[in-house]
Amino acid sequence: MTRKYLIAGNWKLNAGGAKGIELATAVAAATKGAQAEVVVAPPFTVLAAIANDLEGTHVGVAGQNLYPKDSGAFTGEISAPMLLEAGAKWVILGHSERRQYFGETDASVKDKVVAALAANLCPIACIGETLAEREAGKTLEVCFRQLDAFSAELAKRPGYGVVAYEPVWAIGTGKVATQEQAQEVHAAIRQRLAAVSAELASKTRILYGGSVKADNAAGLLGSADIDGALVGGASLDAAGFAAIVKAAPAT
Ligand code: PGA
């Protein structure tokens, strides 16, 4: 089973206006002809404008979150159908910053995965352990608990949804997991998915995230169970992000 590499740029709380438009255009130009699939996740304020500008190009657009109701009295929230209407085809869910600062739980992440799938938005569902959990030998226990919350939902459309393994201690810290550390967890995640269904395990792309940069991308992406990257800081520079995209091996 060949899985197409996916490189997604998570802009977080950055580039929410004119700068975002400029960055998206530069990313599309710099990654033209890339073999890997390319996605950018801008802030909501600029998402529709970027999706409009990128229409017909190879670059997809993702939301960074959604609220799992289609509409109603939920001030300040954005639904899956709204993201779709704005031009997004993807959505990042359960990012560790959402879990850490905004109280997201395994249960709420599952609800969001359900809402994304119902609206035909591809979820990029994030899991990962903290440094304390890793040091306590709980890496797989934590990752499996977070994964188990939504894996049965992903199994309803094997290969449609994506899982991102992002060790919290590697996010924005410059401390990238070694190729071996990452591959070990990725292989375990794939095995865990195989317990749900063999098809789910073989078709699901598992991205690595956490301080991915142009100079460490090739090694990570060369690992058997790493099918792409979720890139934060380095996705804010079009040339650096394009270098990561180009580091994906040919499939
Ligand atoms: P980073 O962020 O690349 O800046 O470490 C990754 C992420 O949080 O998705």
Task: Tell me the structural class.
Answer: alpha/beta
Architecture, CATH level 2?
Alpha-Beta Barrel
CATH superfamily name?
A: Aldolase class I
What would you call the shape?
A: globular
Q: Reading side by side through the largest sheet, how are the strands ordered?
A: 1-2-3-4-5-6-7-8
If you average the pLDDT, what whole number results?
97
Q: Biggest sheet: strands, sense, closure?
A: 8 strands, parallel, barrel
Assign the CATH class. Alpha Beta
| Count of discrete domains | 1
Assess the beta-strand content as a share of residues: 15-25%
Element pattern in H and E: EHEHEHEHHEHHHEHHEHEH
**Associated small molecules:** 2-phosphoglycolic acid
Spans of at least 5 consecutive residues with low confidence: none
Using the CA coordinates, give the radius of gyration.
17 Å
Number of helices: 12
**CATH topology description:** TIM Barrel
**How far apart lie the N and C ends?**
10 Å
Number of DSSP strand runs: 8
Helix content class: 40-55%
